[in-house]
Amino acid sequence: DKSDDGEEVEWWSSRQLTVQMMQNPQILAALQERLDGLNGSPSGYMESLPKVVKRRVNALKNLQVKCAHIEAKFYEEVHELERKYAALYQPLFDKRSDIVKAAYEPTDEECEWKADEEEELTDEMKEKAKLEEEKKDEEKEDPKGIPEFWLTVFKNVDLLSDMLQEHDEPILKHLQDIKVKFSDPGQPMSFTLEFHFEANDFFTNTVLTKTYKMRSEPDENDPFSFDGPEIMCCTGCTIDWTKGKNVTLKTIKKKQKHKGRGTVRTVTKTVPNDSFFNFFAPPEGKNDGDEDSEAVLAADFEIGHFIRERIVPRAVLYFTGEAIEDDDDDTEAVVLCVQEGEEEADEENDPDYDPKVRSPLPAHIHPPSKDLWCPEKDLTQLFSTLLAQDALSSSYWRPWVAAVIS
Asked: Which family does it belong to (predicted)?
């Protein structure tokens, strides 16, 4: 059939054009720049408004800037409240630390806790369980405090366990407490994480610190981007390692061949090593243009904020795993709400919506994976995947790209 032949030629030409485009870095760079510009760009609606209406919209924007400055003051007062209530929490956290490191033995009354599974147990079953528990305790050595409390917390939290290396664990067994200290009244907004260690063979410090300095004021050049305090920089501390115990460095041996004589010699070199303790030697601040440094700093900020907001206040629940279950439940609920909201929006806004037809794509084109839809993904990778699925040779590729950049 001639029409089929024509469609096949058109399909092949489109495919060849796509391959050529992917192989041309200038075209890819220009297209990437164009797509980046489309992300979040205003529609043509504003340009179509009468001048007098645009003038009033500018007045609304000025009001919005004033709102941003009020919001900044709000967060400054929130910081003061956090500092005030931190003083009220601290005696409880100090007692927690004393129990963990065996400086205080809680009373029977303080140790009473009615677990959910115990609610339906009969008195006879409870007595039997108690006897078995006592028998197990007699067979074991009496541990002091709560061994490896903070190490267990770290290992239970994905964000922190990803930082841990096997050689870090023996050191973190000596971690006795983590404290949060807020800046004094009238001082620039900041907070410090203090990691308290018992005496150990790895370093002589008793406290390792990490300080985060923040700013709570809108950017003059982009006031609408203000969304609460922004961490501007962080400073770590010097760890006084015992000789041969520095886990942030490793020694490697490398063979070198002499160019003239042809002899081979072995050279010993010290290089950085992956370790949780690199957390105390972060980039000092934002370095414009250095994407790697900014990425490391952003990840560091996320970790510091998480330790301050979640780990320190709820440490026992991360030790038992209960807080992790709550976090998972919250995440699932958010995902479900987003999915339901998107489905409802599709149904309400699409006049041609048919509940029997769930996908606008041809049957042979599979929906993109979660990774593909991530806007941080490289454009070349996106086109490679779409090309492999014949998506670029059809009229369906535009919504896909739009979805990736939206």
From this structure: Belongs to the nucleosome assembly protein (NAP) family.
Per-residue pLDDT of 197-251, as tens digits, reads: 999 999 999 999 999 998 888 888 888 888 888 778 889 999 999 999 999 999 8
Q: N- to C-terminal Cα distance for the chain?
A: 41
Name the token pair of 405: 């950049």
Residue 154 CB neighbour total at 10 angstroms: 24
Confirm if 203 and 240 have CB atoms less than 8 A apart. yes
Q: What angle do CA 164, 167, 173 make, to 5 degrees?
A: 75
| pLDDT tens figures, 40-63 | 555 678 888 899 999 999 999 999
DSSP per residue over 85-128, as a string? HHHHHHHHHHHHHHHHTTS----HHHH----GGGTT--HHHHHH
Opening angle at CA 32, ends 29 and 33, nearest 5: 85
- Taken in order 16, 19, 21, 26, is the CA torsion positive or negative? negative
Query: If you classify domain 75-107+145-324 with CATH, what class do you get?
Result: alpha beta
Distance CA 197, CA 205 (A): 8
Q: How far is Cα 165 from Cα 170, in angstroms, rounded to an integer?
A: 10
Burial, 170: exposed, middle or buried (Cβ in 10 Å; 0-12, 13-18, 19+)? middle
Q: Is 246 helix (H, G, I), strand (E, B) or coil?
A: coil
